[in-house]
């Protein structure tokens, strides 16, 4: 297979006792590479490994942390 690049963007901002964070994972919504797909066979031994690729697509997140 060829190369596979993912781009993520995130940032944090602190204001007093508050810390805000936000980000985007897989900014360009890159699909995982499919290798070893053989329709009609019931073997998962040669399928695309999700631990090496991102099968979930683009994701967004936000969060707030408050310190006391």
Describe this structure in words.
By secondary structure, the chain is mainly beta. 0% of the residues lie in helices and 34% in strands. The chain has strands at residues 9-15, 18-25, 59-66.
How are the SSEs ordered, and which strands pair?
Layout (H helix, E strand, L loop, with lengths): L8 E7 L2 E8 L33 E8 L2
Structure summary:
This protein has strands at 9-15, 18-25, 59-66. With 68 residues, it is an all-beta fold.
Task: For this entry, give a set of tags.
elongated, about 0% helix, about 70 residues, mainly beta
Poorly predicted regions are none
β-strand number:
3
Strand order of the largest sheet: 1-2-3
The string of secondary-structure elements, in order, is EEE
Q: Determine the strand fraction and express it as a percent band.
A: 25-35%
The helicity comes to under 10%
Oligomer: single chain
Number of helices: 0
Structural class: mainly beta
Mean pLDDT: 84
Name the shape in a single word: elongated
The N- to C-terminal Cα distance equals 50 Å
> Radius of gyration over alpha carbons?
18 Å
Largest sheet descriptor: 3 strands, antiparallel
């Amino acid at each position: 297979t060829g190369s596979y690049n993912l781009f993520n963007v995130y940032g944090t901002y602190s204001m007093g006792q508050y810390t805000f964070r936000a980000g985007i994972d897989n900014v360009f919504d890159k699909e995982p590479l499919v290798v070893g797909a053989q329709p009609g066979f019931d073997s998962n031994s040669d399928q695309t490994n999700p631990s090496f690729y991102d099968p979930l697509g683009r994701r967004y997140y936000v969060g707030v942390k408050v310190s006391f």
